[in-house]
Design brief:
By secondary structure, the chain is an all-alpha fold. It has nine helices and no strands.
Length: about 200
């Protein structure tokens, strides 16, 4: 993940900046970016206007930091499973981990990266580019895992793992969105189970 440039800060400064970003992130995911004002964030983070603009040039700069935070949290929460994604059974464990996360949140919130992308992609080119990089990193992790599965001989020779990784990420995103709408993990389970069964149908054991 390519993060926004951050000036050298003291430990106290880093803590203050992080508090602002966390407050902004919570508000933007709850209310939407457009409906979250700088004043709202100042109040939630308990910082002054001068403090706010010491750390962030403008709202766009803060949005970039929120995207980085959410990307790190979403991918960081999955990296252990994705780095071990070297077999079909490992895919099942990843699937179960994602379902457990959604179930633990009662399916509220969906995918933070997806939520930000839905709101910002058509109106903020810089944010869209940053979100695209986050999705690309996620896709790369999946592709690396599928390549490892192929190397073990569990996938048919010549399978397009790039396309498969993209399809799997698209299925995960759709499943997360529908699970959020329905307040039920069923759509996410169906999307991931269908992909796993597709692999098994190609002779994967």
């Amino acid at each position: 993940m390519v993060h926004a440039a951050v000036p050298k800060l003291t430990a106290k400064g880093r803590a203050t900046r992080q508090r602002i970003v966390c407050a902004a992130s919570a508000l933007m995911l709850e209310r939407g970016v457009a409906r979250t004002t700088i004043e709202d964030i100042q109040e939630a983070a308990n910082v002054s206007t001068s403090q706010m603009y010491h750390y962030f040039a403008d709202k766009g700069d803060l949005v970039a930091a929120v995207i980085d935070l959410q990307s790190d949290q979403v991918l960081g929460g999955q990296q252990l499973e994705l780095h071990r994604l070297d077999s079909i059974e490992a895919m099942v464990r990843w699937r179960n981990a994602l379902v457990d996360v959604m179930r633990g949140r009662s399916c509220i919130g969906g995918c933070p990266i997806g939520s930000l992308a839905s709101e910002l992609s058509d109106t903020d080119p810089l944010a869209r580019a940053r979100l695209a990089r986050a999705f690309a990193q996620w896709e790369d992790l999946i592709r690396d895992g599928l390549a490892a599965v192929a190397a073990r001989g569990e996938l048919p020779p010549g399978l397009d793992v790039d396309r498969l990784a993209l399809a799997l990420l698209a299925g995960v995103q759709g499943g997360l969105l529908l699970s959020q709408v329905r307040r039920d993990t069923g759509p996410l389970e169906a999307a991931m189970d269908a992909m796993i069964e597709h692999l098994r149908s190609m002779g994967v054991r």
